[in-house]
Amino acid sequence: MKISLLVVSKTDISYIKEGIAEYCSRLKHYTDFSIVTVEVKVPSSASPDIVKRLEGEQLLKHIAKADRVVLLDEHGKLMRSVEFAEYLQKLSNASVRHLCFVVGGAFGFSDEVYKAAHDKLSLSPMTFNHQMVRLFFTEQLYRAYTILRGEKYHNE
Questions:
Q1: Which of 3, 6, 32, 1 is nearest to 97 (CA)?
Q2: What are the φ/ψ torsions at residue 35 (nearest 5 degrees)?
Q3: Which residue, among 1, 4, 156, has the nearest Cα to 80 in the 3D structure?
Q4: Among the four residues 47, 70, 144, 154, which has the most C-beta atoms within 10 Å?
Q5: Helix (H) or strand (E) holding 132
Q6: Which of helix, strand or coil describes residue 75?
Q7: Which of 4, 3, 5 is nearest to 131 (CA)?
Q8: 3-class DSSP state for residue 114?
């Protein structure tokens, strides 16, 4: 199963970039994982609704009809790491070919992106900046694969 993390705008904080690179490197041993960055030019005077619409249009260009789309959303389902690992295994068993996780911009997702989604997951009830979410997600994805393989990374 190919897994993508679709994000709006670049990661520019060096320590976050290093952490993401570390977990992406580790993930190569388990799955075909990539991060796809969508750059959106938005006028500074644009309303949140316009920003969400413009970002949504760009995000949807990277989502195919056959993709399983999961939004990382504050209103999504909360899972423990073991449950997330089981979720990935269930999708793999169901022969999902491309699993696409999506991180929206500062204002969230457009209605069109919500309509394209199959699931919504929340990493925490707390709010994190969008760059931190990328690091937390890649670590959790790595953790999930170590759980599925019975490796010692996760302690429970």
A1: 1
A2: -110, 125
A3: 156
A4: 144
A5: helix 130-148
A6: strand
A7: 5
A8: helix
The token pair at 136 is 């937390």
- Side chain identity at 43, as an amino acid letter? P
In the chain, the domains with their CATH numbers are: 2-40+49-148 (3.40.1280.10)
Q: pLDDT digits over 66-115, tens only?
A: 999 999 999 999 999 999 999 999 999 999 999 999 999 989 999 999 99
B/e letters for 92-128, b = 16+ CB within 10 Å, e = fewer, are eeeebeebbbbbbbeebbbeebbebbeebbebeeeee
Quote the tokens at residue 124.
């925490």
pLDDT value, residue 156: 81
Q: Hey, is 89 helix, strand or coil?
A: helix
pLDDT, one tens digit per residue, over 5-38 is 999 999 999 999 999 999 999 999 999 999 999 9
Question: Which two tokens mark 148?
Answer: 């599925």
| Residue reference for tokens 């190569």 | 28
What is the total residue count of the chain? 156
d(C-alpha 14, C-alpha 153), whole Å: 25
